Amino acid sequence: MSPQPQAAVGAPLSRVDGRLKVTGKAVYAAEHDVDGAVHAVIVDASIGRGRITSVDTGDAEKHPGVLRVISHRNAPKLPYRDNAGSNNPPGRRLRVFQDDRVLFHGQPVAVVVATTLEAAQHGASLVKVRYDAEKSSTDLHEAEPGRPTDYARGDAEAGLRSSAVRLDLTYQLARNHHNPMEPHATIARWDGDKLTVWDKTQWVMGTHDELAAVFDLPAESVRVINPFVGGGFGSGLRCWPHTVVAALAARETKRPVKLVLSRKQMYFGAGFRPSYEYRLRLGSDRRGRLAAAVHDIDAETSSYETFTEAVMGAGQMLYSMPNVSQAYRQVPLDVNTPIWMRGPGFASASFVIESAMDELAHELGIDPIELRRRNEPREDESSNLPFSTRQLRECYTVGAREFGWQARSSRPRARREGDWLIGLGMAAGVYDCGRFPAEARARLDADGTAVVEAATSDMGPGTYTSQTQVAADALGLSMRTVTFRLGDSLYPPTSPHGGSATMASVGSAVVDACDQVRQQAIKLAVEDRESPLYRVDAGDVVVRGGRLHVQGNPARGETYRSLLARNDRSHLEARGNYAGAPSPARRSYFAYNATFAEVAVDAALGLVRVRRMLGVYDAGRIISPKLADSQALGGIVGGIGTALLEHTVTDHRDGRIVNANLADYLVPVNADVPEVRAIYLDGEDNDGNALGVKGLGEVVQVGVAAAIGNAVFNATGRRVRELPITAEALL
């Protein structure tokens, strides 16, 4: 079969939805114009643990405009069917207004519904809640961890004892919050027993299924709409309690209800990257060949759900070593449940592992890149599977050349420019890209235009654009004649929009649907006596610019429009699917990077400034270079935040988050972001999926914090094992 021409895929195209976004015409969750919508504001618990003894709603109910105040005292009992498939961790998910228990500071304890937002806000301030408070546990270092998840190969303790060089290092990683520009928001409307919600979510079908489970509704009675997401970073990967509150309030008031979390409520109304205490004991010979590693990992979770993430993966397969032992313990605390945040698990583990590798390189007097090369595995030693593709050595080579690594001195504090100490650092990164089942629908209309639909989301990576590129090439159409629709549970179901899975999963389903439509058209043409393509071998026909023609003979052919018109067909349609990752796995499927950083540290003040960064990526086929650059920049900026700025501060007396605002929870701004460059290695991972992609959205943040930390050590000689790296730690 002749390959389809590729005109859109690989081209640096601007976003198809860019004009809507820059002109303010893109409609986000809280902006949908739903007739008769009223406003809801949640009342948050002011204790960290205990019971509600009374809820005084009298003053709130008297306030002009207030329609209803709902709490556990008057809320109906909700079914809350089990629903483990919607990213709900093991445990008993929070059931809003179903009892008097308070499990964390900020838990919803009431909701005020009013005709205006101002009335709802003031009404919420008038609700008086009394508690029987208990001592809360919110400190990772003082709570008792749960039973560990273990991994082992070889004998790590014996390997350590026999190692010529041993390191025993403990790292502390602060909790991080996603802080997207768009707050979480829901508009809920009931039409009889049918529920429609406009919701900020990264998984339309997950929210759909959770609402059906909570209210015990048949699937066809729930619709979730989500055409645009104003940033997510993982915060929208499950249905949070406020969405249920909005739907409940709408049913009780018989009015559409809009509920928008405040910036403060975002810190406990949605999840976060959990804090870690991570001890790593590492052993090697004098040449730097790794012999053993023992990982002891403690991470926070809530008291009512056990959240886990892939923090163990990198330690099992990134480097070759015969002896590995891991114990990953969740520490139940009186906090809301964490959730995945960009590069989940791997980003946290990479700071520890890649910092430790830098420490080992310094101890041995070996260049950090050379140390990593000496420990490059031939296969995935955690699964004994061959790598699908692994160009990490090439990432090192290209990165070192392009960044000027040869100018780095192995001696800390060797380079100074006035008051500034200059250092270079690097780190490797790896991410286990997701491949999940997905479906898509493609329709080619008689006018030669096409519509492709899938119930995925677009939180910023450019899903509208990249899927349009894939569809346009598969159909042989120009970008302007293809419309990709997403963000509606009425469309074919897809996997979560996260885990670097969307391009591989949804993209593969889109290719399948469009290929089927194109083949339908080709079959129609070669069997049509009036077609110039009559009796041509179908495998010799390609489509370009909406015109079917013989490969190598563009003059012999016809357009989709003429073919469908002559055959009296209003459209051709097909539903495509992607089954997800093969089971059992045939290959070890990961994306890789090498990240390089140059920092300047004020010798007197300890201030750290990142001066330039480079990321080199082995991410398979790049569908859209322009979007890829956007992803790389965003991931590096997020990594700068983790390395130098982001840190949740909790008052352990009552579990209150002290810096729950963007004035005190610091994130990188323009002045913090240096010159950033991204390089993508050639190569397609054809074992992974039909498109040959691996995904880029997650791996771009993995290793960034470690590269910066290693550069800080090179500049100052001070090793900081706690994130974020603050001026105080360097003084």
UniProtKB/TrEMBL annotation:
Keywords: Oxidoreductase. Residues 23-135 form the Aldehyde oxidase/xanthine dehydrogenase a/b hammerhead domain. GO terms for molecular function: xanthine dehydrogenase activity. Its EC number is 1.17.1.4. Gene3D superfamilies: Aldehyde oxidase/xanthine dehydrogenase, a/b hammerhead, Aldehyde oxidase/xanthine dehydrogenase, molybdopterin binding domain. The keyword Oxidoreductase applies. SUPFAM superfamilies: CO dehydrogenase molybdoprotein N-domain-like, Molybdenum cofactor-binding domain. It is an enzyme of class 1 (oxidoreductase). It comes from the Bacteria. The keyword Chloroplast does not apply. This is Xanthine dehydrogenase YagR molybdenum-binding subunit.
